[in-house]
Each structure stands twice: as structure tokens, then as C-alpha cells.
Amino acid sequence: MTSQRLRTSAPRARVSAAALAANLRDTPPDAIGDVRRDAWGHGLVTVARALHAAGVRAVRADAPDVAIVEDLGLVATADEPTLPMARVLGLPGSGGQPVLSLASRVLSTKPLLAGEGVSYGFVHRAPADTQIALVPGGYAQGVVRALGSRAHVDIRGRRCAIVGRVAMDVCVVDVGRADGAEPGDEVVFFGSGAVRDEIAEWTTVTGLTAAELVARVGLGVEREVVA
Questions:
Q1: What's the Cα-to-Cα distance from 38 to each of 50, 92, 179, 197, rounded to whole Å?
Q2: 108: left (phi over 0), alpha (psi -120 to 50) or beta
Q3: How large is the C-alpha radius of gyration of the chain?
Q4: Rounded distance between C-alpha atoms, residue 217 and residue 181, angstroms
Q5: Contact (Cβ atoms closer than 8 angstroms) between residue 41 and residue 13
Q6: How far apart are CA 127 and CA 66, in angstroms?
Q7: Strand ranges in 58-129 using DSSP code E only, listed in sequence order
Q8: Measuring CA to CA, which residue among 110, 127, 100, 122 is closest to residue 190?
Q9: CB 134 within 8 Å of CB 169
């Protein structure tokens, strides 16, 4: 595996414009948005524009971003109650649609025989013969180390377990049967498909809030806005 291959296969955070618009439907015009920390890692400009389109005219913003939000036609305010941004961004339990999802691609697959270990320290050993996939996405991209052997991803519509220690830029996933995944298959960590609300599991495992987790992911990887 080369560093170039890892870079070209790097995970991406997808920001759903449709989910954002749906979550902002019926927003009162006197509401105040919150775009601090780059809109919780979702992209200040993207979220600010969606707020403006929904009729919101004022937001709380970090000091360096005040000029940006004012250029977008919003008023920067301070110390005012804001919209429930957890719902605006669709965090688990809020009733909103998830706006952010984290997706990657399978780099490679290989068989793992019963008793063989994976990743640093071999903290996970296969209880039976299986197939594993190497997936870009590690703690440098916000896939917290504690998630090793305690969280799942979506591959081909199935929940597959992350196994072993999460590394800096990759993790290992148990895909089960030999035909469970192929290089190039999409891998979703959270936000859609079988792991739509997986962030809720991440909060349980890590002790961090959903807001902290999505902000860390959104600020740590390249983002793209999707329909």
C-alpha cells in the first residue's frame, strides 16, 4: 500500500443539502443559527446559506468568521439562544435527518483464519475463518481509537464490525464471507444506510457528544456537498 493510494482513497464527509433544507423547514424567521466551529464541521458557508434560504437572518459565529457570514447577508450576534442545531444537523435523537455522513472505499481484502490477529498488538483474533477489508479512515480523520472492535460500518448494505485497533489513517473491517467485499466498494461509517444513526453508538463508546464527534470528522477530512 502506498501513501499515494491512501490519499486518493481518503474518506470524505458528505453534507446533504436536501437533509439540511428539510430540517430547516418551518424555521421561524426570528430564529438564530449557530455556525461556530465551521458549523460543527458541516461547513460554515454551506450551513449559513441554508439558514439564510430558510429565512434565518442572524447567527452566532466565531470572531474570525463574522465578515464571512455578513457577506452572506446574515447578522452576527453573540450570547443569544440559538436554534436547536442538533436537529438542524440531524444528530441522533434530534428528530432531524442526518446531514453529515462519512464514506470511504475498501482498499484491499484478505482471508483471516481462526486464531489469527489483526492490527497493532493483535487485540482481536478471529474466532472463526473470515474475510477482512482494509479501509481508509482512522483516528486522524475522526474515527476515534476507542471504536476498534466496538463500532460498525455499512458495506453493501450490511453492518460489518470494525475489528482490532483503529490506526492513524486506516481501520480493519470484518466482512464475513469471502465475497463480502471487494476493493473499491463503498464503506459508510455513519449517516446513511445501515449505519444511519451509528454516531449514537460512537457517543456510547467514546463518551464524547455527537456534536463533538461530527465536528471532529467534518474538520478532519475533505467535505463535499451532495443533493
A1: 14, 20, 40, 22
A2: beta
A3: 19
A4: 24
A5: yes
A6: 55
A7: 58-60, 75-77, 100-105, 108-112, 117-118, 124-125
A8: 100
A9: no
Distances (CA, A) of 85 to 30, 45, 90, 122: 15, 15, 8, 40
Contacts of 148 (CB under 8 A, 6+ apart): 119, 123, 124, 162, 163, 164, 165, 166, 171
State how far Cα 23 lies from the chain centre: 18
Q: Could you report the per-residue pLDDT of 165-222, keeping only the tens digit for each?
A: 999 999 999 999 889 999 999 999 999 999 999 999 999 999 999 999 999 999 999 9
- Whole-angstrom distance, CA of residue 114 vs CA of residue 127: 5
Q: Strand 100-105 vs strand 75-77: parallel, antiparallel, or unpaired?
A: unpaired
Residue with cell 477489508: 133
pLDDT for 1: 45
Residue 176: burial class (beta carbons within 10 Å; 0-12, 13-18, 19+): middle
CA 136 to CA 11: how far, in whole Å? 6
